[in-house]
Write a structure and sequence with these properties.
Blueprint: E1 11-16, E2 21-26, E3 32-38, H1 50-62, E4 67-73, E5 87-88, E6 100-101, E7 109-113, E8 117-119, E9 124-126, H2 129-139, E10 145-149, E11 154-160, E12 163-170, H3 172-182, H4 196-208, H5 213-226, H6 231-249, H7 251-254, E13 259-263, H8 265-276, E14 282-286, H9 287-300
Parallel strand pairs: 1-4, 4-7, 5-8, 10-13, 13-14
Antiparallel strand pairs: 1-2, 2-3, 6-7, 8-9, 10-11, 11-12
Helix pairs in contact: 2-9, 3-6, 4-6, 5-6, 6-8
Length: 306
């Protein structure tokens, strides 16, 4: 997005993850005036480095100050700028009264952080996804059903009457990254391409026999060595095995339910394909749109854009 010469945002939206920092200058009607991104994610910063990292990115937007900043994500974790304590489900995904003010040195900054959600039994937590859920609900008023948020740590959340009733996390994305980059399987996954048929077969296999996941994973290595399994097929099968195993574990969430996916386009397409094979038609929402809608819903309930 090309920025105008001078920007006077009503407020600034910030999504601060483990790997990246993203910010949007927001106008009076909720429009995006400008956006910016850096690689200053939470995982690369010590506590005293958060304020300088934010100023490097959006300092030219705040001028003399007085521009509220609302942030979500890992910035509010125990290792973040300051901890925003989890809220317990069942509850609404966001609550403006629970925003936590970040300690700042620069007097121009006014930063408030949205807390994540926690579940006691079975133990589970989320940070950042609660804002995406709030955004999805603002885009789908009155929605009751299940939201699936695929990613590094995929979330399945049961939604009723505007509240997150329960949720469950699967480390599917992180497992794919570890297995494809740091395990013996990496030798057979090099290159580009994709094999839909191999993905479909792996999803079906994992759903029918999830207890065989360990053996099915090593078979990818064995077939590469003795049968010349193509890297494109191996990658698709690895993805299908992991997503299929996730679907087997999350079956109580999606079986017979209305399901909406909130995630990156390519990953959401894989989940939609896997769910369609089980007779589940899904709705898909863009994750950035949901994040902005969620942060905007907070801003509307505070003095940020009044």
């Amino acid at each position: 997005m090309t920025e105008p010469a001078f920007i006077t945002p009503n407020w600034i939206a910030v999504d601060w993850g483990t790997s990246n920092l993203r910010a949007w200058a927001m106008g009076p009607e909720g429009q995006v005036l400008a956006e910016a991104m850096s690689e200053d994610g939470m995982g690369k910063l010590v506590r005293d480095a958060f304020e300088p990292a934010l100023l490097r990115l959006i300092g030219h937007w705040i001028g003399g100050g007085g521009v509220p900043i609302i942030a979500c994500g890992m910035v509010g974790s125990r290792q973040g700028w300051c901890e925003a304590p989890y809220r317990s489900v069942p509850c609404t995904p966001l609550d403006p009264a629970a925003l936590v003010a970040a300690p700042t040195i620069d007097p121009r900054l006014s930063v408030r952080i949205a807390p994540g959600l926690k579940q006691t039994s079975p133990a589970d937590v989320m940070r950042g996804e609660e804002t995406q859920i709030a955004g999805a609900l603002s885009l789908m008023p009155g929605y009751d059903g299940v939201l699936c948020l695929p990613g590094t740590h995929s979330k399945w959340a049961l939604i009723s009457a505007g509240e997150v009733v329960s949720f469950q996390t699967f480390m599917t994305g992180e497992m794919f990254a570890l297995l494809s980059k740091a395990s013996v399987l990496r030798h057979g996954l090099q290159g580009e391409g994709w094999d839909d048929a191999a993905f479909d077969m792996a999803v079906s296999d994992a759903l029918s026999r999830p207890e065989r996941i360990g053996a099915r994973l090593f078979a990818l290595r064995a077939e590469g060595l003795i049968a010349g399994l193509a890297p494109a097929s191996a990658r698709a099968r690895l993805s299908g095995l992991l997503i299929g195993t996730e679907l087997a574990g999350a079956r109580p969430y999606w079986l017979g339910q209305s399901v909406t996916l909130v995630g990156a386009d390519r990953l959401s397409a894989a989940y939609a394909r896997a769910l369609k094979s089980q007779g589940i038609e899904v709705r898909r929402l863009n994750v950035t749109n949901c994040t902005l809608a969620g942060l905007s819903s907070l801003a509307l309930q505070t003095e940020a854009i009044r």
